[in-house]
Amino acid sequence: MDAVNDFLIFVDGYLGSAIWFPALLLSTGVFFTLYLRFPQVRYFRHAISITTGRFDKSDADGDTTHFQALATALSGTVGTGNIGGVALALHLGGPAALFWMWVTAFFGMTSKFVEVTLSHKYREKTPDGSMAGGPMYYMEKGLNAKWLAILFALATVLSSFGTGSLPQINSIAAGLKSTFDIEPIVTACVLSVLLGLVILGGIKRIARFAAAVVPSMAVIYLIGAFAVILPNLANIIPSFVSVFSDAFSGSAATGGFLGATFAYAFDRGVNRGLYSNEAGQGSAPIAHAAAKTDEATDEGMVSILEPFIDTICICTITGLVILSSGVWNEKFDNQFQRADMIFVAGAYDQSDQDDVSSISGMLNGAATSARGYSGKISLIEGIAQNKEDFTLINSRSFAEDIRFSNNGENLSREVSVTDGRLDDSGIVVTGKSLIHSVPLTTVAFTRGFFGDFGQYIVAVGLMLFAFSTAIAWSYYGDRAMTYLFGPKSVTPYRVVYVIAFFYAALADTTVVWNLALITIVLMTAPNLIGILVMHKEMRKTVADYWSRKS
User: Fold this and answer.
1) Which class is domain 2-52+64-330+444-538?
2) Cβ atoms < 10 Å from Cβ of 40
3) Which residues have a Cβ under 8 Å from the Cβ of 242 and sit 6 or more positions away?
4) pLDDT at residue 119 above 70?
């Protein structure tokens, strides 16, 4: 598994973690915002009116209402990105990452408006009578670039696993294990069966499920969040100050957090923002293609609301819960995941600023003297006897109170480490360190009026949000399969999707998240290039729309 994770990190270094990707993502949103004169602001009220059914036509082609299409698209985004993804962004980039999530969301509102409008404009009716749309249709019909459409559709199938299936069940399993001590295998079995039952019903059943679950669960989640924010109001202003003050300088080391450079915070914030709202990724247009309307621009305006609800509202609240409660830079007892651990050669001291700078530089990709440890660790009753030879870094923090065990027994022998990694994958390492993703959000929710009961809100909310995300992404994948291979390919795809969903409940969390980062890029890049090429058609489409309305 270490080799797999290292490979994923290597590939991501040329994709999502390379500067070209967040630059392309943001510049596309900025370009269309200026080119279309801030549609996310000018059309916001009109978007609400459309969503509430003011302009509905009962005889229009489609399978869902505007609200159901919005709920389905939101169910594909409101999930681990809001609960675990925000926590991961803050863990990696500090408070500054939240600022770049906001920036991504604001300009992403325009990107989503464009991609949904163009995709809906070129949608078509499939042989089974359902509507099918998405970027692959505008790429083929509008750009006359079927090769690009095929590339996007293939990336969508991959992303349905990397974004929709694998991270969702992985986070659900981790959350239910930490909160209710439910074994991941039990979670995998029960939810895999339920997933299969829902997705077999197609878009109409999926839309009804999303419309019922997403709004109600969002309300419950927000109640739990404000139960943390209100008793920590004194920390809200300092939290906002740190978000803005660190935005262009990076976040300094504080508490257990070892700091993050501007580039690192920018990259993690933009990537997490994209994972949260999927603006520019091309997934939402697939859900919106099913909406009952003859006006493609109408549906594009509905989609403007998604990044606002998902990132600017829900993600911000999650971020404030984590920052105001102070848990983001605190160390907690936990079991270290292999992908989060690195043994550094030599003894480093967290109280020594030079040591902190050296380790921080290594974690942020800067030139540093710190290097991975290779050698033996001598253990007695699980405790290392040669501590001066190495320093264990876990979850971007100095690990403390470290113990080594196997099958529940503390080890009393030598273990081998090569280039910073334990050779024996069966060894369990525990101790105190920073935590991230769902466990971090879970701890934060216990720092409010509800106390320990707050963790149950996170666990239940995560289960419903993430499960609905997995359902929505199964639909995106089956529409892509329909485009590539026809309707007969949908059933085999769904079977594989459910199997992968089951397996991911038992996989390493960090590996799953790293896979998600790669699949997002493979899907997003061709879509952004496509809508940029069609910028003139987009402006004409919007102008024609308003001429018909006047």
Assistant:
1) mainly alpha
2) 25
3) 94, 95, 96, 251, 323
4) yes
The dihedral sign for the CA sequence 291, 293, 299, 301: negative
CB 35 within 8 A of CB 267: no
DSSP label at 253?
P
Q: Nearest Cα to 538, choosing from 28, 125, 155?
A: 28
Range 527-550 burial, b when 16+ CB lie within 10 A, else e: bbbbbbebbebbeebbeebeeeee
Name residue, tokens 């360190």. Answer: 433
Domain boundaries, the chain: 2-52+64-330+444-538, 332-433
- In sequence order, which residues have a C-beta less than 8 Å from that of residue 260 and are 6 or more positions away? 92, 93, 94, 96, 97, 250, 251, 268, 364
CA–CA distance, 115 with 36 (Å, rounded to integer) = 13
504, 512 contact by CB (below 8 A): yes
Exposed (0-12), middle (13-18) or buried (19+): which is 219, by Cβ within 10 Å? exposed
Return the number of other C-beta atoms located less than 10 Å from residue 240's C-beta.
16
How many residues in the chain? 550
- Write out pLDDT tens, residues 274-328: 666 777 888 889 988 888 888 899 999 999 999 998 888 888 999 999 999 999 9
Q: Determine how β-strand 390-394 pairs with β-strand 341-345.
A: antiparallel
State the Cα–Cα distance between residues 269 and 100, nearest whole angstrom. Answer: 5
With a CB cutoff of 8 Å and minimum separation 6, the contacts of 343 are 372, 373, 377, 390, 391, 392, 393, 417, 420, 421, 422
Token pair in block for residue 278: 């999927």
Q: pTM of the full predicted structure?
A: 0.81
Burial class (CB in 10 A: 0-12, 13-18, 19+), 183: middle
Q: In the predicted model, is pLDDT for residue 200 greater than 80?
A: no
Spatial neighbors of 526 by CB under 8 A, at least 6 apart, are: 135, 139, 148, 151, 152, 155, 282
pLDDT at residue 536 is higher than 80: yes
Residue bearing tokens 């039952």? 197
Q: Average pLDDT for residues 151-175, to the nearest whole number?
A: 82
Q: Is 433 strand, coil or helix?
A: strand
Tell me the range of 507-511, 528-532, 545-549 where mean pLDDT is highest.
Answer: 528-532
Q: Average pLDDT for residues 263-268, to the nearest whole number?
A: 77
Mean pLDDT on 481-495:
90
pLDDT in tens, 338-375: 888 999 999 999 999 899 999 988 887 777 889 999 99
